[in-house]
Amino acid sequence: MVTMTMVVGLTGGIASGKSTVSAMLKDLGYSVIDADVESRLAVEKGEPAYKEIVDYFGEGLLQEDESIDRQKLGAIIFNNKEERSKLNSIVHPAVRKRMNDQKAAAIERDEQLVILDIPLLFESKLTHMTDRTVLVYVDENIQLARLMKRNQFSEEEATARIKSQMPLDDKRQLADHIIDNNGTIEKTRIQLQNLLQSWKIV
Ligand SMILES: CC(C)(COP(=O)(O)OP(=O)(O)OC[C@H]1O[C@@H](n2cnc3c(N)ncnc32)[C@H](O)[C@@H]1O)[C@@H](O)C(=O)NCCC(=O)NCCS
Ligand SMILES: Nc1ncnc2c1ncn2[C@@H]1O[C@H](COP(=O)(O)OP(=O)(O)OP(=O)(O)O)[C@@H](O)[C@H]1O
Q: Which InterPro entries has this protein been placed in (predicted)?
């Protein structure tokens, strides 16, 4: 029997709870393709994007083992729109290719549901890669507090990262479904289960 694979784009903002929701989906056995993981792999030494980054940003960006110092690169790009666009133009095509290849493999396996976890789904206009979109939403004050706590960021560092993305309130208008992650993890889990049930997936 041939199953139609449903491709869901899972998005949110930095520290809004995407990984928390994607971990629940993985526990249920679904394939989750994570843009952050793929963007790490795409800039490993030997990859074309690695060379482009070093050529543009300079060797000062490298650690002793010649891998890219992500903290240093983050400090540059989250405080400068032009440098961020430059990095995006180097990394995003490689990430898109990696994700599309994995999506095709999941469809080939006749999987019922595959999830693309993409923080910049709306900013990068990638909804065409998905059948429907789910936004993991939190209020900005909670997002700021969770980000500062998780990454040990100052308020200034955390705010720079949040401001580098489309506001979650604007993403609300674009998403097909919203999971409100302001409450407890259990409340979030129930919303996810209801969503899967509404899709007749579980
Ligand atoms: C700047 C880098 C080196 C910082 O690495 P670091 O390990 O500290 O963070 P990580 O990659 O885990 O990203 C954490 C979160 O930051 C946000 N973020 C990352 N890159 C960007 C960006 N270019 N614009 C806006 N937000 C971003 C996302 O919400 C992401 O979930 C890294 O994020 C990067 O290479 N970014 C460019 C690629 C990219 O856009 N990745 C996001 C998904 S494709
Ligand atoms: N409902 C919740 N209640 C309390 N803490 C939460 C809740 N959801 C997530 N968190 C915590 O908030 C932080 C951010 O969550 P998570 O890592 O899932 O976000 P994310 O959207 O995947 O972030 P990023 O895009 O930056 O990787 C984590 O430390 C997580 O443990």
A: Depp_CoAkinase (IPR001977), P-loop_NTPase (IPR027417)
